[in-house]
Amino acid sequence: xxxxxxxxxxxxxxxxxxxxxxxxxxxxxxxxETREKVLRVIKELGYRPNAIAxxxxxxxxxxxxIIMADISRSAVAQLLxxxxxxxxxxxxxxxxxxxxxxxxxxxxxxxxxxxxVDGILFLNDELEKEQMKIAIDAIKDAMIPVVLSNVFxxxxxxxxxxxxxxxxxxxxxxKMLAYGRKDIYLFTTARNYSVNIKKEIGYKxxxxxxxxxxxxxxxxxxVSINSLHFQGFFQNNSIDAAIAVRDSIAxxxxxxxxxxxxxxxxxxxxxxxxxxxxxILSRPxxxxxxxxxxxxxxxxxxxxxxxxxxxxxxxxxxxxPYRFIKRKTTVS
Length: 332
Fold this sequence. Notes:
Elements: H1 6-13, H2 17-25, H3 32-45, E1 62-68, H4 74-89, E2 92-98, H5 105-114, E3 119-122, H6 129-141, E4 146-149, E5 160-163, H7 165-178, E6 184-189, H8 194-209, E7 215-219, H9 223-231, H10 233-236, E8 241-244, H11 247-259, E9 269-272, H12 278-281, E10 287-290, H13 293-308, E11 317-320, E12 323-325
Parallel strand pairs: 1-2, 1-3, 3-4, 4-5, 5-11, 6-7, 6-8, 8-9, 9-10
Antiparallel strand pairs: 10-12
C-alpha cells in the first residue's frame, strides 16, 4: 500500500500507536500474540517506517498537538502556560492547531492527524455538539491519546481536566443572595462555549431555588462590542449584582455602570468567573471565583503523558478545586 503510515498499521491491527512503536523498537516488551499480529499487518500493508515514524517510545522528539480556537483570550494564555511548562519538563515539541467553528471540521482534523502527533490536548470549547463528535471520532479512529482541557463533552470515555463550573457559579450566586442581592444578572457569551453553558446551569439553579427569575444577558467577549451592548442596559433593567463568565466582560460592564452614575459595590456588586490579571488591574479590584486555569493546563499535560506511556490511570475525569477571592467590587 502506497504511503502507508504507522496510523494505518495501528488501525488495521487494532492496537495503539505506542504498541506498534514497541513492536518495531522493543519487540521483547510486547506479548508474542500481539507482536505477531502487528508484524503480520506491517507485512500485509507493506509498511516502511520513516525516520519520524520509527518509534514513539525511542525517538528523541515527542510531539503534542494542541487544538484550540482563539489564542487571544487571557484564560487561554494561562492554560497554554501550564501546558508549555510541563511540556518543557518532558522535552516535548508542541504544535498548535487553530480550528474555528466555521471551518470544515473533517478536513481540519485530517490536517492535524497528518502531522503524526503523539498525543492531543483538546482546548477548543466553542465547537457545536456535532462538530465535537466529528473531531473526537477522528482522534479515536487514529488511535491518538487525547485529553480534553477545560472542555466538556458528553462521551464519558474521553479523559478530561476542568473545574466544576456549574457548582462554582451556583455557589457564587448563593453568596450574592446571602449579601441581600435580588436582581442578579448573569452576563455570558452569545456563542455557546461549553464551560459557559455549565456556568449558566449553576446560576439558574441557585436563582430558581431562591424563588427568583434568572436574568441572563448574552453579549460578546469582545469589549468593543459588549461595551456598546451595556450602554443601553440601564434604561430598561433593574440590577444590584452582576456575575460575568469572563473578567473582561465584568470589567467592561463595571466601567459602563460607573459612567452611568452607579456606585460599585454599593449599588451593584460585580463578580468575575476567572481571576485573570485584569481582575487586579480594574478599579475597583474585581471580586472573582478563582479558576486555576494554569493548573488545568499543567494537569492535562501530565495526564496525557500517562496515557501516551500507557500507564495505569485511576481517574481520567479530573475536577480541580476553585476558591472565592473577595476584593473591592462586592460587599458582605
